[in-house]
Specification:
The structure is a single chain. The protein is mainly α. The protein has one domain (about 5-115): Ribosomal protein L20, C-terminal domain (c-terminal domain of poly(a) binding protein, Orthogonal Bundle). Helices cover about 75% and strands about 0% of the residues. It has helices at about 5-20, 30-70, 75-85, 90-100, 105-115. The N and C termini lie far apart (about 85 Å).
Length: about 120
């Protein structure tokens, strides 16, 4: 009985990896062993990047809220402490948008929190 090498599944698996390597430079796009390593590393970077994106956006929102709060005489930590004490259900994304694009609405939030 001949040896079964499962060539159909192996070819399909390699084909899907090579499809992900499309657009890479040099041998990374057409040599199996090089492309496999490049795609694996690229997928690791993609996974890490999805986590880092959340961190960097949160840092951006905090910087914007801090700048908006300091205009009204509060630091970021004081402002967020008052927001949580008052029980406002506004997250950092919304507060940052108000501080950047709607300063009069952000001023109203600050005044409501100060009272």
């Amino acid at each position: 009985m001949p040896r079964a090498k499962n060539a159909v599944a192996a070819r399909a698996r390699r084909k899907s990896t090579m499809k992900l390597a499309k657009g890479y430079f040099g041998r990374r796009k057409n040599v199996w062993t090089v492309a496999k390593n490049a795609v694996e590393k690229g997928l690791v970077y993609a996974y890490q990047g999805r986590k880092q994106k959340k961190r960097s956006f949160r840092a951006l929102w905090i910087a914007r809220i801090n700048a908006g709060a300091r205009i009204h005489g509060l630091s970021y930590s004081q402002f967020m402490g008052l927001v949580h004490a008052k029980g406002l259900q506004l997250n950092r994304k919304v507060l940052a948008d108000l501080a950047m694009n709607h300063p009069e609405a952000f001023k109203a939030v600050v005044e409501a929190v100060k009272k």
